[in-house]
Amino acid sequence: MAFNGHQREDDNSIDEDETPSKQLRSNNETPPGHFRNEPNNEAAAPAGRATSDRRTSNSTTRHRHDSMKKTRPPFPWFGMDIGGTLVKLVYFEPKDITAEEEQEEVENLKSIRRYLTSNTAYGKTGIRDVHLELQDLTLCGRTGNLHFIRFPTHDLPAFLQMGRNKHFSSLHTTLCATGGGAYKFESDFRTMADLQLHKLDELDCLIRGVLYIDSVVSSGLSECYYFENPTDPDRCIQKPYTLENPYPLLLVNIGSGVSILAVYSKNNYKRVTGTSLGGGTFLGLCCLLTGCSTFEEALEMASQGESTRVDKLVRDIYGGDYERFGLPGWAVASSFGNMMSKEKRESVSKEDLARATLVTITNNIGSITRMCALNENIERVVFVGNFLRVNTLSMKLLAYAMEYWSKGQLKALFLRHEGYFGAVGALLELLHPS
Amino acid sequence: MAECGRVDSHTSGHTMDKSITLPPDEIFRNLENAKRFAIDIGGSLTKLAYYSTVQHKVAKVRSFDHTTKEAASDKLYEISVQEEVTARLHFIKFENAYIETCLDFIKDHLVNTDTKVIKATGGGAHKFKELIERKLGLKVDKEDEMTCLIKGCNFVLKNIPHEAFVYAKHADSEFRFQTANPDIFPYLLVNIGSGVSIVKVESEDKFERIGGSSIGGGTFWGLGALLTKTKRFDELLQLASKGQHTSVDMLVKDIYGGSYAYLGLTGDLIASSFGKSATADKEFSKEDMAKSLLHMISNDIGQLACLYAKLHNLSRVYFGGFFIRGHPVTMHTITYSINFFTKGEVQALFLRHEGYLGAIGAFLKGAEEDNPNQYSWGENYAGSSGLMSVSPDMNPMQRARSGTFPFDMLEMDRLERQLVNLPLLQDPSSYIPDTVDLTEDALAREYWLYCFEEALDGVVKRAIASQPEMPEAAARAEKFRQKYRHKLQTLRQQPFAYGSLTVRSLLDTREHCLNEFNFPDPYSKIKQRENDVALRYYQKAVRSLEELSWEERQFALVRGVLAGNVFDWGAKAVSDVLESDPEFGFEEAKRQLEVRPWLVDSYDQWLERQKGPPHKCALFFVDNSGVDIILGVMPFVRELLSRGTEVVLASNSGPALNDVTNSELQILTERIAAMDPVIQAGLREDRLTLVQSGSSSPCLDLSRLDKVLAMVVRERQTDLVIIEGMGRAIHTNYYAMLSCESLKMAVIKNSWLADRLGGKLFSVVFKYEVPPDKQPSPDCAALTP
């Protein structure tokens, strides 16, 4: 993808070569850190509609801001999480820019801000999750909106090209990044965009991000939620949950793969285990089995399929419950077990296969999670990661599995900003180095 | 899931070939007396179990009544060959395609049975119920699969040494067999059928399904069939073994560019299974997808197994089910996964007879009134196919074409005696009887296989000679030769076939094969003659010893035992000499002995110990008949008795080579007692006791000894164990650690072995050991140099 300014969210038909600025970077000679000693390089720019309102409130806390200003990094503020499948980017858009700042603001910075905030889709594959945007957020003494943007990792080169075209490196030279890609693409950032990455551990960032977002989102839509009556499809509803005293908690991050962390306090956590059967497996298998190519397509198919035609259930074997071991007839005995039979292979639809893949992966994550919760003696489980994005099917299934197999002992919790916590954590590291 | 690999018939259905004629001598043996049938029908294999009795010829010895005129006979005792009936369990495994042929065969051969029911388990049981009932006229009685599985598992773990093994693909020997631990509980059984069941087993009757997973063999098969359009399970495995998962899986290094060092995750670790196939415009090879799928499923099962093992604090985890059964590929991936997730704390264990567990369990359920669990059972090497005897890579059609019958068999003999550990083993759980594991030591394996093959002609000759009155003995001996040679050939290819290959197992296999063809005791007459000759010299030998000073006598006694031990038909070097020069005498043997210092020589410590207080009770594992027992061991025993030490003489329950058997020793001891007041007093006062070892092997497994022996040893507070002979003290038990003083004496009568141990032919091993906690106190120790 390229950040080429298409405004339609559904636009993914236009060729990505339409990058608006093809001019070569002109300030190659600028030594790294050139702007570092200039506190006001976040120069004034034409502010958005809301900026003027905020200026007054800002003046009341002017004094505090002055002291903060000294440690505050220059704009723009980004946090980046480069995963196996997706790059997650959070961008803080200051809304309290003073006229003075606006005048000083360099053109490049202004153009980046304008580009990011005036579009919701970037190139073929870049998306801004507008519904997740956090407005009127105060960060480091500045007020503004936090934007959540994602694009596939395989489009990172286009992103870097855009960064180069937009002279990103002229703004400041450190970009906080986490996820494996921060390591894998570090040299690409340097050579292609002249950007120096500040690499951060993904799990540190993840936890920091989760705790931060949960703490700032207190009004409006609750960040954390759960499903009430998960075992009863008719009465199963989403309910807000207050994560006031969150520890200890099991944090299950379902990206391409899965990491399971036991978090005991803000700074005390361990990675309990992980599994390679994650979102990447769901999509990878779906692509092979159904010929689809996107997560959304795969989910759409899954929602229309029936996994019981693909899976072998306990009742398929025992005619009902297997009472000797307390197994209900509806439980899956063998995922894809019916596919051992040629006739059944020929009678299932792509939708059925997608659904079975989703159910298999989800249940497996549920079962490993449940075992970890037991081993770690933790009752609260928070599921995050982009596998859960627009994936109510899996969330309800997880909620169900946690409740049913633990006989109500375990609670599955979910967070609205699913996959963005690592990126948020990276941004926080930029603002408050730990 | 509980079910073990039930599969709809069409996925594995091969047309039943009724034209096959079964070779009755080789399979379904002893059907005439069969009773108590059990059948386990899985997705592709049927396992049949039955109990039968076998008529064996056994050699019996009986003392002549010396008060009558018969005393004039020049024979010491009478040898007669009698028929004895022993119990045997037969298990046979074959492709479902042969089920009808097999049922017909059974029907035709089943004569003397009053059996009315057949116990059945396995997913296919209901499908073939009608067929079985119609063909055999037996009522099918279904048993719970999991219960059968666990019962079977307990049975093999208790009764078959080297049942469990660790699989190590890249090691010198792929199979590392576990020594039988007397405490088999608790353990975890992970049964990977179409789904996975994880069962915690706490005792014979107490087990619980603590968890499971729907991602199992059925997932591999079903998903694999969808992805690769390959229908058969073993073909899928073959595909997988040729593939590269890295083209399909997203590895840590695909995300990180290298390792994720902060968490210690290496770059080659799979971060997301099938993560690279999330694209519409790339083709992946069948092999690569199958491999990725195999890894995904194996890792997932391994991970869950580890989580359950950890939660329940269990370290013994056995894997079974059709996903594992005889497939090195899956054993490897599961092992890898377990090692990864437990960092080596838990080992993945597999079972040699895993495929039979259900059938064994179903059989045991039906045989409860016979109390099969009250007995000890032994694997019959002659009648059992080894591990991987039927290659899983060959499909039934190929086999049918090649004319080989894919039947796999297991036969278990009911042992007349219940076998237990020697109570004096320092650590029963780490005791390994055998000194050299030929599975691992390729050079030694090469030598011994060659050695046993070379000796085969002689054994055949002797077997024929032992039955001069039977003209068909030659033909039988020829069958024996073929069978044993075939076993040796199998072991050359698959040294792991019957557990760890050892000199003991080679010897035992030979004994089993001899018995199979009714050569119960080829040495009976030789032993009789030797015993007779030696007995005539007994008094003279004792007198000459008594003339010696105390210290000279101690040395002469030891040399006597050692020289006596040179007389051994089991060792090739000696049997050559004995056969060519029958005059080879006791004195000559003494001259052949190595002069001190011996190869292993703790005689000085032993002598010093003899100067101290007498032992309370000595347990003496004796070796050969003739000169060895009569002129070597008995005078030594006599000395011990004179010192006030009680003596328990342990000899074989059944014949093996020229080893003295318990019944022969009874007669010999009586005869000696008649000449020797010391022995007589010993017997009368019950200070000299004869017990049987429970074994019929030229070697000695101290973890499988007669229960009575163990009881006597405990009652008499035995504080000295003497083990004599190459088979018992060198091939086995050379490194055995006992909790009391021990003395191992042997003459090395094999130049290759002598060479190995750094000695030469007729080198002496005299190994006297005192366990650390029984060492004399420092002031006493000061007396001994």
Automatic annotation (TrEMBL), chain A:
Q: What are the protein's UniProt keywords?
A: ATP-binding, Coenzyme A biosynthesis, Cytoplasm, Kinase, Nucleotide-binding, Phosphoprotein, Transferase
A single Gene Ontology MF term assigned here is: pantothenate kinase activity
Q: Please give an example of a GO cellular component term from this record.
A: cytosol
Residue spans with biased composition (Basic residues)? 61-72
Q: How does it assemble?
A: Homodimer.
Q: What is this protein called?
A: pantothenate kinase
Against InterPro entries, the record matches this protein to: ATPase_NBD, Type_II_PanK
Q: Species name for this entry?
A: Parambassis ranga (Indian glassy fish)
Q: Where is the composition biased (Polar residues)?
A: 21-30
Supply the gene name: pank2
Family the UniProt entry places it in: Belongs to the type II pantothenate kinase family.
Which regions are flagged for Basic and acidic residues bias? 1-11
Which GO biological-process labels does this protein carry? coenzyme A biosynthetic process
- Phylogenetic classification of the source organism: Eukaryota, Metazoa, Chordata, Craniata, Vertebrata
Q: Where is the composition biased (Low complexity)?
A: 38-47
From TrEMBL, chain B:
Limits of the Damage-control phosphatase ARMT1-like metal-binding domain: 452-760
Reactions listed under catalytic activity: (R)-4'-phosphopantetheine sulfonate + H2O = (R)-pantetheine sulfonate + phosphate; (R)-4'-phospho-S-sulfopantetheine + H2O = (R)-S-sulfopantetheine + phosphate; (R)-4'-phosphopantetheine + H2O = (R)-pantetheine + phosphate
* Cofactor(s) recorded in Swiss-Prot or TrEMBL: Mn(2+); Ni(2+)
User: What broad class describes the main subcellular location of this protein?
Assistant: cytoplasm
Per UniProt, the keywords (alphabetical) are: Acetylation, ATP-binding, Coenzyme A biosynthesis, Cytoplasm, Hydrolase, Manganese, Metal-binding, Nickel, Nitration, Nucleotide-binding, Phosphoprotein
Q: Give an example GO cellular component term for this record.
A: nucleus
Q: Which GO terms describe its biological process?
A: coenzyme A biosynthetic process
Q: Does the keyword Transport apply?
A: no
Question: Gene3D superfamilies attached here?
Answer: 3.30.420.40, 3.30.420.510, AF1104-like, Uncharacterised protein PF01937, DUF89, domain 2, Uncharacterised protein PF01937, DUF89, domain 3
Compartments where located: Cytoplasm
Q: Which GO terms describe its molecular function?
A: ATP binding; hydrolase activity; metal ion binding; pantothenate kinase activity
Q: Subunit notes for this chain?
A: Homodimer. Interacts with PKM.
UniProt lists the family membership as follows:
Belongs to the type II pantothenate kinase family.
What does this chain do? Phosphatase which shows a preference for 4'-phosphopantetheine and its oxidatively damaged forms (sulfonate or S-sulfonate), providing strong indirect evidence that the phosphatase activity pre-empts damage in the coenzyme A (CoA) pathway. Hydrolyzing excess 4'-phosphopantetheine could constitute a directed overflow mechanism to prevent its oxidation to the S-sulfonate, sulfonate, or other forms. Hydrolyzing 4'-phosphopantetheine sulfonate or S-sulfonate would forestall their conversion to inactive forms of CoA and acyl carrier protein.
> What name does this protein carry?
4'-phosphopantetheine phosphatase
Q: Which organism is it from?
A: Parambassis ranga (Indian glassy fish)
- Give the lineage: Eukaryota, Metazoa, Chordata, Craniata, Vertebrata
